[in-house]
């Protein structure tokens, strides 16, 4: 693997080891299956997906990419975890998902290859797993067309997020495998907003995502203290 590639080999290995469980809704990836309808509806409400060319950065096993394709988008999912991509490709074949493809390539590499090629770019639950999240944000901004949308979701960095997203989710409730998240890699909304501004993206909306561990219900709110989502837009040329 190139030393300049914006990826952590340990993170790639972590998700590759679990790849065969991506589509098991009762596995370690159950939270992703549970929050996916919320993410999908939030994206689709702001940037209707039907007929759009969409890129999902850090697609993993394809949960979001698959659902966006079923909304009528032409979707490309990219990731650097080989085994997870193979699972995504196999699921697309088995489920006969129309208009979804997968590639093993970084966002930065694809940005150099195909700038301004997508109407919508999504990068969900991925930025907290790379050494340089700002580089990924810049790549997403390069990849989207002028006037297009870029959506991010990640985890805040504060005491509450440490308690809920790491201690609670990974060690108490066992919602996620232990070691899924590193506190130092979590990203404050102000930091992500700075990355977006530096990349030339306009921040449009921010939402938080909350969870009740007793009812297992997730919902969107104004509370961005733990999990949160950004919607951003690339200005039209000359705007």
Automatic annotation (TrEMBL):
Transferase found in the keyword field: yes
One Pfam family in the UniProt entry: Methyltransf_23
UniProt EC number: 2.1.1.222, 2.1.1.64
Keyword Lipid biosynthesis belongs to the record: no
Pathway the protein acts in: Cofactor biosynthesis; ubiquinone biosynthesis
GO molecular function: 2-polyprenyl-6-hydroxyphenol methylase activity; 3-demethylubiquinol 3-O-methyltransferase activity; polyprenyldihydroxybenzoate methyltransferase activity
Keyword field: Methyltransferase, S-adenosyl-L-methionine, Transferase, Ubiquinone biosynthesis
Chain sites annotated for binding S-adenosyl-L-methionine: 39, 58, 79, 124
GO term, biological process aspect, one: methylation
Catalytically driven reaction(s): a 3-(all-trans-polyprenyl)benzene-1,2-diol + S-adenosyl-L-methionine = a 2-methoxy-6-(all-trans-polyprenyl)phenol + S-adenosyl-L-homocysteine + H(+); a 3-demethylubiquinol + S-adenosyl-L-methionine = a ubiquinol + S-adenosyl-L-homocysteine + H(+)
Function: O-methyltransferase that catalyzes the 2 O-methylation steps in the ubiquinone biosynthetic pathway.
NCBIfam families: UbiG (TIGR01983)
PANTHER family xrefs: METHYLTRANSFERASE, UBIQUINONE BIOSYNTHESIS O-METHYLTRANSFERASE, MITOCHONDRIAL
Family: Belongs to the methyltransferase superfamily. UbiG/COQ3 family.
Protein name as annotated: Ubiquinone biosynthesis O-methyltransferase
Species in which this protein is naturally found: Variovorax terrae
């Amino acid at each position: 693997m190139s030393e300049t590639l914006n990826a952590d080999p340990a993170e790639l290995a972590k998700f590759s080891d679990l790849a065969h469980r991506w589509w098991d809704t009762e596995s370690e990836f159950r939270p992703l299956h549970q929050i996916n309808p919320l993410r999908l509806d939030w994206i689709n409400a702001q940037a209707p997906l039907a007929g759009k060319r969409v890129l999902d950065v850090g697609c993993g096993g394809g949960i979001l990419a698959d659902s966006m394709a079923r909304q009528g988008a032409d979707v490309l999912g990219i990731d650097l975890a080989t085994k997870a991509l193979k699972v995504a490709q196999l699921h697309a074949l088995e489920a006969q998902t129309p208009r979804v493809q997968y590639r093993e390539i970084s966002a930065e590499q694809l940005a150099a290859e195909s700038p301004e090629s997508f109407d919508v770019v999504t990068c969900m639950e991925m930025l907290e797993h790379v050494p340089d999240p700002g580089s990924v944000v810049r790549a997403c901004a390069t990849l989207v067309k002028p006037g297009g949308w870029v959506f991010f979701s990640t985890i805040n960095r504060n005491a509450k997020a440490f308690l809920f997203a790491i201690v609670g989710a990974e060690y108490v409730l066992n919602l996620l495998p232990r070691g899924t998240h590193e506190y130092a890699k979590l990203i404050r909304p102000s930091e992500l907003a700075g990355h977006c501004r530096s990349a030339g993206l306009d921040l449009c909306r921010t939402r938080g995502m909350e969870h009740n561990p007793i009812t297992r219900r997730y919902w969107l709110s104004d509370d961005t203290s733990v999990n949160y989502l950004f919607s951003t837009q690339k200005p039209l040329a000359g705007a």
